[in-house]
DNA sequence: GAAATCAAAACAGTATACATTATAGACTTA
DNA sequence: TAAGTCTATAATGTATACTGTTTTGATTTC
């Protein structure tokens, strides 16, 4: 129960923003253990600043669903099967459309980035490097998402994707799943190259459905913890 | 530039939550003038509490898009035509599906509430009472939205609907528009009564498209202010 | 009279100190 | 030994004080 995470400040704007980005990155990279708790005063001490900016940053992350605030430190939310299914429903509604948008606006540089991410994912899938695979996956999504001109749409998607992403780390180490995902990415990529918005829409739809199915199949059927987890989550709403 | 708004605490949980709900209600009711600024220390003084809970509440509202934080107090965001169009795009993607869900889960009491809200809206439309019409509209939406079992979906919808709602007040005083909206509500209501999820989906789609068109047509073509407004908005992102 | 510079005020950001609350763990008792 | 209660502690919630920055307004100068 020590503090294996080392925080450092990222050089942008005020302290709250710095801490916010740093902690969010830590979460997104999956460097935060499920049961581990984040305490404002500890992080503040480590950074050599006061509690308030840290507290602000953590509370923002709570509002955005990245963390839950209990009376005993901030921790990762424990998602139930229902939670995950709910998140995937929203993603199913938003992402195909957003990707179709991106098909029109993505420029040559974007396509190049997409190709690189895809290649990386394929390499990681063959060697079985879950970490790299995970990163390539994120790069791929962030790339096309950056081309979406509707900010609110892309930000909403990014947030919900991040929420399941936390639990996703386990799933992504499963090699057959990696193969399926890579196939989906390639299909989407090819549609992007052809600038075929309809194909992008359809393939993204298929991709997300696939992801959800795989996800549900592989995730441990720990339904017995659902009530407990839900109560913890609920407490965090405040 | 005095302080015409009177804040009082709402009796739930900690001070931050109380202030948050109070201020959000004020915004949702359209009681906040567009140029008016909210200053934490002022509100705190009025409530007899310190700055911090007020500041926390205001910052949460900023994170949720209800306010923007400038260097000179918090104010309502100035939405450009693009912003509004972006918000409506997300709503178009989410609300029909959510309403279809509600068609299955809405109980008899819910239908009754819906009927009451509809009747109120019709009455307000004939007398031209914009305020009452506005309220009835919100009641109608909140009712079916409450029956949606996917919390994240309904909360996302509520938030985006609230964002345009701020500007909407003006539009809703236009009587021909009121007639169109009431007709849409009735169509949706009847589909709800029949528990016809498909019809609810289609009519909600139509309803939102209609709302957006009316909205764009009636809103002043003040495109010359767009850049300025966008820059104000951007500053608030921090 | 207009423009530029400077000063003062207003407000957000940050720090520190104090109050409150819920949980864990020890201690008591049946 | 197990169950219940109580206390100590860890963490958040709130208050106040201070700092830095930006804006506004006034004064001076051209």
Automatic annotation (TrEMBL), chains A, B:
GO terms for molecular function: DNA binding; DNA-binding transcription factor activity. Keywords: DNA-binding, Transcription, Transcription regulation. Residues 219-238 are annotated as: Disordered. Residues 13-79 form the HTH gntR-type domain. Pfam families: FCD, GntR. PANTHER family: HTH-TYPE TRANSCRIPTIONAL REGULATOR LGOR-RELATED, TRANSCRIPTIONAL REGULATOR, GNTR FAMILY. This is DNA-binding GntR family transcriptional regulator. It comes from Mesorhizobium tianshanense.
